[in-house]
């Protein structure tokens, strides 16, 4: 028998780099083409942008129970787009006719995720509705409708100016970007500690940051995942999130 000391070494596979776990609250869908029933989903472009950045995207069930404990196992969080928040969540007594796709369960979960993520100091990227959720979670309000089709930012790519040296400018590596937008609401009163770090030509707040945030954080009103595969500035936002998550893990 060959002595163990002289046996040839078995080739080993190279270690796969650790992919930080990125929690993404799932969205309720009444129907999907691939399933027979209602589903919980996330946009494929969003998932792929996180994967390209080196993260492991994980859809999280929207149940507002033990949110802090559930999030603690993750390395970062991405709050995605979706329908409108219920106006009563920010103190409104009337609901504009344009408000759509309100879901109280989704609202409760997303607001809890925003608050707990910031409290835990987890890296957080908030997109579109996600930005609005963070603003409301910190006591801010929303303009329920921007003024109809001639003023809203739906199916629109437009220039956004980023404040120099802001987190969003550092993340994208730019001071101006072409932003793919789909929203008819926008920030009205800012939540506590938030500041506007990017604006559209019409003055709409397009990015927010939080003074004294415990972890990496930025929020954008547009959908960077729409063009991230072709636009490095947009992909850089996801790269920055995953990099911050990796540095923390």
TrEMBL record:
Coiled coil: none annotated. The keyword Hydrolase applies. It holds the Pfam family Peptidase_C26. Transmembrane segments: none annotated. Keywords: Hydrolase. One of its GO terms (molecular function) is hydrolase activity. SUPFAM superfamilies: Class I glutamine amidotransferase-like. InterPro entries: Class_I_gatase-like, Peptidase_C26, PuuD-like. The keyword Hydrolase applies. This is Gamma-glutamyl-gamma-aminobutyrate hydrolase family protein. It comes from Streptomyces neyagawaensis.
